[in-house]
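Next comes one such specimen:
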Amino acid sequence: MEYKRQLHNCSGERLEKLKTQMSYRLDEGRGSCVYRIGVEDDGCHSLLDYKACKETAKTLELLARSLNAVVLELKMIQGEVKKNDDGKPVKLDGTAEEVVVPSMFGNGKDLSQNDFDDEHEEKVETDGNLPKELKIDSGVYTRAEMTFQRIETHLLDPSPVSLSKIGKENAKADIASKPKEPANSVADALSKRNIRVAVVGNVDAGKSTMIGTLTSSLLDDGRGSSRTSIMKHRHEIESGRTSTSSTHLMGFRSTGEAIGAKDNVRVNRRKTEDEVAKESYRVISLMDLAGHEKYLKTTIHGVASGMADYALILVNSRHNPTHMTHHHLNLCVSFGIQVIIVFTKIDGCPDHAFKTSKSEVTKLLKAPDIGKMPFEIKSEQDIEKVMGKMNTLAPMITTSCVTGQGMDLLQKMLFALPKRRKHEKKVERPFEFLVEDIFNVPGVGSVVSGFVNAGQLSVGSNAHVYVGPTDDGTFIKTVAKSAHIARISTNHVTCGQNACLALALSKDLRKKLRRGMVVLKESASSTKEFEAEICVLKGVGTTIRKSYQAYVHILNVRQSAYARKIEIVKAVPGIPSSHTAQYGEDNEVVLRPGSRAKVRFEFAQRPEYIRPGMRMLFRDGRVRGVGLVTAIPTVDPVR
């Protein structure tokens, strides 16, 4: 229960505080709360008229919509107080009238328009939508009661059709006369229509600036304003170097129009991820990865566990591509990720410098270890030509985040990209959630964030799950209490979504959580050994033999492992004999660049949850090879 006297011409800062307060009341009431308008803190009547109550109710409902809540009931109460002959208010007994009025936005109109203009108010009052019992005269003292209810994620469609289903049957006739638009289901937008794009490049290529410009639709000022808005740590802002992996949402409407960052309620702030997700028909998840060689292992883990559909390889137009650019290209191609070359900082770049940079990138793409044919994008027709041919072609786009050159073309390119990873085909598989990060939220408990790799889960008191493996290889049985996707509360998560799960764990069990774990619906087994068919990448000289130690990346799992057994695989048609492992001294198998073999690895520290079919990568400083997990030694399930 919350009391409000009146809300009139609130500033952006005031609205933010009111929104936080309403969010607390909704959580306190387990998804519902009641607001009383025109009432003092001590319960006395505030002596407001109908117009003042109506304005306050509009503001509260607008805030409720931004919190994924709707108005279940709005009652106007009149006849409790009136003026006597001396002009003083007098309380009346037994004469109060309660009138239920329709929700202010019950017709499903776009909330981005100005809902406080005089023309709109006059239309509502003269259309006959208000009950006849309601008195709108200025001298009639009025107070109101509003009941709010938080709704589920699959009802988050901001279109008129979705809003009409939430207890507003009287709006159906008005909706039927309007042209139908594609449904903006947040669950589908964040799974079936979510394209995951890794953004990699050298340290001075402008990756964070590019992501900041794309997500906000605002140009950079040339001094780092775009990158500052998305960086997570203070040292990143001060140095301008990204040291951690982070994901940022870019939304598109069904027409291909990018959703900007301007907030209609809080004009000085950007839209949050949940607001972008609610408005979007298609979502592009841009993964900002570190470019400095110092943070190479972070970038490798981001590519290995990011489930990327595509990769943007950013190249500074003013400098030749470095060895890190070559390494990033090799990394993405090794994982089968299709690449798009983006030349940045074209504004003020000398023609000869850009020509040299472009020719060097072309050489890299045509190299045997990359094997891509460059294709320059200059118009929308070029985008149509390259679609479906990106296995062999590498589109190249020239951009500037300061002048905006090429940015529209890049946005259209991102919107036109088809989704490559069909996670919706894995709905029938057992639930599998890959843990990428761990949080301890006051009042909530242990929260794990990550990616739903397979299956689906409905959270609640009966949602029993298994988290693990722990250091001894066992799984912890617990309950998934609640879930969030894109900071939106939901009771159902499905494969293809990035989500957060709140787990019911004691303080002792919380200490056992770590990155690289999985959340499963059924009990499973862990293992310290696995077999994989690998291919050693060409490039710097590498010799691999028995007892070779490397750092292994298998999706979200990363740990040191030893090569315990190496076998030469059978000859594969079409692969030259030079790609086969050779025997060295003492007749032991030796792997060199280009070799293919079946290797049994053993983790050095603790058992992990892996299964056949997972893609792996191993490195010892630099990436040395890639492979596919083919078999797991038989282990009894751990209960």
